[in-house]
Amino acid sequence: MSPTSTQPAAPPTVRERLALDRDELTGRAHEFARGSRAEATWRVYEARWARFTAWCAERDETPRPADPLTVCRFLTDLAPHWRPATVADPAESVLGGQVLVRPGVRPTTVAGYLAAISVAHAGDAGGDGRPPALNPARHEMVLQVMSGIRRHPGVAPVRRRAALRPDDMATMLEPLQPEHRLADARDAALLLIGWKTGLRTDDLARLRLGDIVTSPEGLTVHLRRSKTDQSGGGEVRGITATSPADPLDVITAWTRWRAWLASHGLHTGPAWRGVDRYGRRPRATALTTRSLGTIIATRAAAAGLDGDIGGHSLRRGFATSALTGGANELAVQRHGRWRSADSMAGYIDDAHLFGESNPTRFLRVGGSPEKPVSSADPVHQHGAMR
Q: What are the boundaries of each domain within the chain?
């Protein structure tokens, strides 16, 4: 054998093959663990975990494995700091017998930080090969602190977007000129599809042209993935057809928008796109969730609607309007993809607030219940009850 020739590499031993196989399977397992949540969720977790580790570094605490008391102190630092009120405190600064000393984040956000700490200690936060540590997020003391933060009397109620009812939708759509303006055609279609399907704005932003199909019965909307379907199994929702003369006719709105796109050679891709500065050509890229929320709020303001209207107003409006109109609660829950009746409870309460089950209808002379006032009554038109 010449001096320059090389010896063939020795085949790996059984132990080496097993080690390589174990490493490969470990890597694939981490990929599956990573795929258990949406990338946007991982980015939030990683940002919150980074804040926790920075907080620990400033205070010479160990982030992983963290002591349960360390986690308790971190959660307490995130939450608002309140103290008991005294007679010397101005009345306007007292809430529930307490005075705010230092603002903090909402209980739901604090719980989000706790979830990030829990995931990191479960060993699937970064796929770094470290063994799982004891999970302090599940310690009884930590859970009690989190429960106390949620129950604190000084926390303001969650802000809810105003629900867009049928009259509101008609008011928003009335000034649009979808036959002549590209952006108006787009907005009419996205408003009606988002509202009648009860979509979140992120669901609406993900729709592709091929996901929305017309039929004699109405419109079918294919949702490839959603907040309640992270595995991407996909769901289909139907919107029943109405008369073309109906101001809320979704078939006409969608068909018109598709025709606009087809006239520019666009037959595939995102369902909702930006429009160039001259309002003549659709852009290639999809609208973002934030852009959709801005469009909804802008159209509502232009129509003169009051209230805190944004992206979630479509979803709230769908549930509230359907339930007020007499739709079955389970059917509304399924159509809107709420996981349980409890998660839809706030929408049901709004819908039945002044309905026949309201006991104040019996509080009148004679004792017989008063007939509920119709929302079509001129006294109760939009704006008078907001």
A: 21-151, 166-351
Q: At what angle do helices 107-121 and 68-78 cross, to 10 degrees?
A: 150
Q: What CA–CA distance (Å, rounded) separates 80 from 69?
A: 18
The answer to whether 190 and 204 have CB atoms below 8 angstroms apart is yes
Task: Give dist(CA 81, CA 193) in Å, integer.
Answer: 43
CA–CA separation, 199 and 337 (whole Å): 9
Q: What is the pLDDT of residues 106-140, one digit of tens each?
A: 888 899 999 999 988 876 444 444 555 578 988 99
345 exposure class (CB count in 10 Å sphere: 0-12, 13-18, 19+)? exposed
CB atoms within 10 A of CB 257: 25
Q: Which residue has the tokens 């010479």?
A: 60
**Rounded-to-integer distance, Cα 171 and Cα 183, Å:** 17
Q: The tokens of 172 are what? A: 């928003």
Q: Which of 65-74, 155-164, 310-319 has the lowest mean pLDDT?
A: 155-164
Strand 81-84 to 98-102 pairing: antiparallel
Indicate if the alpha-carbon torsion angle 159, 165, 168, 174 is positive or negative.
Answer: positive
What pLDDT does residue 55 have? 95
Query: At the topology level of CATH, where does 21-151 sit?
Result: DNA polymerase; domain 1 (1.10.150)
Helices (H), 175-288: 182-197, 201-206, 250-263
- CB-based contact 155:106 (threshold 8 Å): yes
The pair of structure tokens assigned to 282 is 């659709």
Compute φ and ψ for 109, nearest 5 degrees. Answer: -70, -40
Q: Which architecture, in CATH terms, is 166-351?
A: Orthogonal Bundle (1.10)
273: β partners: 286
Q: Around Cβ 131, how many Cβ atoms within 10 Å?
A: 5
What proportions of the chain, in percent to the nearest 5, are helix, strand and coil? 50, 10, 40
Rg of the chain taking only CA atoms, in angstroms: 28
